[in-house]
Amino acid sequence: MATINDVAEKAKVSVVTVSRLLNHPEVVNAKSAEKIHKAMEELHFQPSQIARSLAKRRTNTLGVVMPDVKNPFFNKWFRCLEEYATIHQFSMLLCNTDDDPEKEMRYIKLMQAHRVDGIVIVPYAKKSIEYLIKSGQKFVLVDRIFKDLEVDFVTTDHFRGGYEATRYLISLGHRRIAVLRGEGYIFPDAERYSGFQKAMQETGIQIDENMIMNCGLDEGKAYQQTKELMNREERPTAVFSFNGLMSLGFIQAVQEIGLSIPQDVSLLGFDEIQGYGIFRPKVTHVIQPIKSLGEFAFDMIAERIKKADSVRQQIFLKPLLIVGDSCIQI
Amino acid sequence: MATINDVAEKAKVSVVTVSRLLNHPEVVNAKSAEKIHKAMEELHFQPSQIARSLAKRRTNTLGVVMPDVKNPFFNKWFRCLEEYATIHQFSMLLCNTDDDPEKEMRYIKLMQAHRVDGIVIVPYAKKSIEYLIKSGQKFVLVDRIFKDLEVDFVTTDHFRGGYEATRYLISLGHRRIAVLRGEGYIFPDAERYSGFQKAMQETGIQIDENMIMNCGLDEGKAYQQTKELMNREERPTAVFSFNGLMSLGFIQAVQEIGLSIPQDVSLLGFDEIQGYGIFRPKVTHVIQPIKSLGEFAFDMIAERIKKADSVRQQIFLKPLLIVGDSCIQI
DNA sequence: TTGTATGCGTTATCAT
DNA sequence: ATGATAACGCATACAA
């Protein structure tokens, strides 16, 4: 690939003038500009971001570290982030951790080696974030936060989501509500459960601990737990599933047992389900403001890149309850 | 972030020795090595890939240009590619074109500006590929190819997929087979249709052109076309949908009309459907060897990066028909 | 408006 | 086994 030198030579100007045309076009004379442009065309010249990054100590690329692009929630989010970042002249280096702490650390260091200007991370391990802080890296947390760490983040108000969903079920007359959740380690899981608890307490309903199923946020486990749960003598009248994958596992198990939603059991899920469009009844679910989650993430990291001492931003966005046909009054 | 200079100073050796430890560890004395390692630890040193890339004229990063990570087929493929590439010390710069020719060109040039060692592309416009050739860029085509261009590629044998799927439907007694397809512009769409044609011709069945529905590979259009199609006096007994999205649209429309699969109409789809797991009946479908599609793509581009004059590779992978319950004998 | 000199962080070459 | 020096492609300060 041609360099700035080749262009300068061909246009019979100095390298600096070429560089100027790239960075401060207003100060270069029209004739020179034309000659240079012509030379660039002929040589298929593209300024090297590598050399440019080295000189400017800015790469204009963002590192994105997240659990898994295969997850519908995350890939939608990533696309929003990418689109928005591209408008602002940023490229994206992408890594998937599969919630493996070691991968996460390795990838973070890889990003740093690439000298990304900032890291946008949906983290798993708190240790990773502590490392980011310690190493002076600029970064923004998305979705999964750690309450005791003083860092920039944008997330959904998962507490509110859990709370409102539960209130809705209660308003329909449900008392025996089961929960399909994770281990409570990651923030959204913990918060949604807290919201659930609060709604139950407020309305004076006793939580039946036997109906709080730890499924590790996993489809397969949700399937198994559902089989066990729904074959009990005293079944729940409603199930609150904490993500789309578990909703899938639940539905599959329920179908195999021969029960119907919502006649035999109501279902309320967090996030959309894959294939949501074709499944009947329409599942009542809580959605997150994915686009905003992407745009805020970019704005925040961009702001911090601009000035390291910009104010700390901690944003909670409102979730929204979409009412379908999977919950009935009892 | 600390540089190689800081490390050298702290370890009381020259920069070169530090660099050597990084690149040719075997030639540096154990004592020096230890001192350097210690200094690196203390300084949280990560060698700058930027400076390294500039000096070596190799970035060890790959540009991935594809239509859309949201598409389940592509995101599974991307994950396979990423995992495999990471093992081989390559990072991935990712861009989504949404099949917009302008975006595609812009992104390709962006990748070149970043001096990626090679580009892995699922293209839309032939023009993009012609540019890649003209500019001397190393690249590999995945999934969508152009038969008359002499370039490296790996794709599924879509012709065979279309052929075998159609033969299967015919073997079940179907004669009036409708097709939900795209515009025939991209390779997989065109090939699948050719395979369909061949199977029909071989068995002496007349293709009813009115049942070949151009849905632009889009869910919404497939939904509309299905409504029109299935409300005709003479309905097809089977439908062959060319991708998962259109299968979704089809199913939704059929459900709304009040028909059942496969009692009223059989369905055979290409690729998996989102939410496949919970939809009943299980949809009979053709799957592609996604993992191989990722690994071959990497191996090929890696090979070409190693030596520009390596032999041209053009690989067709076999698709596989997965029989479910969505097609019945008539 | 344009050019000269220098530096960005690393590697390669040639010495020692 | 180690070091001095130049080079990678570009941007910036300063000079003209």
Overall description:
Two copies of one chain form a homodimer. Chain A has helices at residues 4-11, 15-23, 30-43, 49-56, 72-87, 101-113, 126-134, 158-171, 187-202, 219-230, 244-257, 290-306; strands at residues 61-66, 91-96, 118-121, 139-142, 153-156, 177-181, 212-214, 238-241, 266-270, 284-287, 314-317, 320-322. With 330 residues, chain A is α/β, with parallel strands linked by helices. Chain A has three domains: 4-56, 434 Repressor (Amino-terminal Domain) (Orthogonal Bundle); 61-156 and 290-318, Response regulator (Rossmann fold), CATH 3.40.50; 158-287, Response regulator (Rossmann fold). In chain A, helix 5 (72-87) links the parallel strand 1 and strand 2 (91-96). The longest helix of chain A is centred in the last third of the chain and has 17 residues, at 290-306. Chain A is elongated, with a radius of gyration of 26 Å. The N and C termini of chain A lie far apart (71 Å). The mean pLDDT of chain A is 95. At the A-B interface, helix 4, helix 5, strand 2, helix 6 and helix 11 of A face helix 4, helix 5, strand 2, helix 6 and helix 11 of B. The first copy, chain A, binds a DNA duplex (16 and 16 nucleotides) through residues 3-5, 13-20, 22-23, 27-29, 32, 47-48, 50-57.
